[in-house]
């Protein structure tokens, strides 16, 4: 079985055969909308594959994303700080988060998955 070709971009190993738009979405902090905006900004087709992109486009894209987009560990730290701040403020949402209950209008009778996701902050 042949080894898959990969490339190291923005701190992540990405397969070169994948469509670049979907490859960007694997990075924590870049979703569907921001991946599309990044591709549009640099003139990259939404169907382009990573192996077909020139090195200079990838290097300029990396420098732009590093300067302008919050990613990975830094983004997770900011989210945690925001949750801790809401809890410290003692408002309604902070109390709900501290009690591990849904904070943004979700039901508590049958579904509380959102609260379970955020409880380990």
TrEMBL record:
One term under GO cellular component: mitochondrion
Gene Ontology molecular function: RNA binding; structural constituent of ribosome
Source taxon at top rank: Eukaryota
Keyword Ribonucleoprotein in record: yes
InterPro entries registered for this protein in UniProt: Rbsml_uS13_C (IPR027437), Ribosomal_uS13 (IPR001892), Ribosomal_uS13-like_H2TH (IPR010979)
Keyword presence, Ribonucleoprotein: yes
GO biological process, one term: translation
Keywords (A to Z) from UniProt: Ribonucleoprotein, Ribosomal protein
Pfam families with a match to the protein in the record: Ribosomal_S13
UniProt family annotation: Belongs to the universal ribosomal protein uS13 family.
Entry protein name: Ribosomal protein S13 (Mitochondrion)
Organism: Planoprotostelium fungivorum
Biological classification of the source: Eukaryota, Amoebozoa, Evosea, Variosea, Cavosteliida
């Amino acid at each position: 079985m042949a080894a898959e070709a990969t490339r190291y971009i923005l701190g992540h190993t990405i397969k070169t055969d994948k469509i670049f738009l979907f490859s960007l979405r694997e990075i924590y902090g870049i979703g569907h909308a921001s991946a599309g905006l990044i591709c549009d900004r640099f003139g990259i087709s939404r169907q382009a594959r990573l192996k077909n992109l020139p090195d200079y486009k990838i290097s300029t894209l990396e420098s732009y994303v590093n300067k302008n987009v919050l990613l990975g560990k830094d983004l997770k730290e900011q989210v945690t700080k925001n949750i801790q701040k809401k809890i410290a403020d003692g408002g309604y949402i902070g109390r709900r988060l501290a009690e591990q209950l849904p904070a943004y209008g979700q039901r508590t009778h049958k579904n509380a998955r959102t609260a379970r996701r955020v409880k380990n902050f």
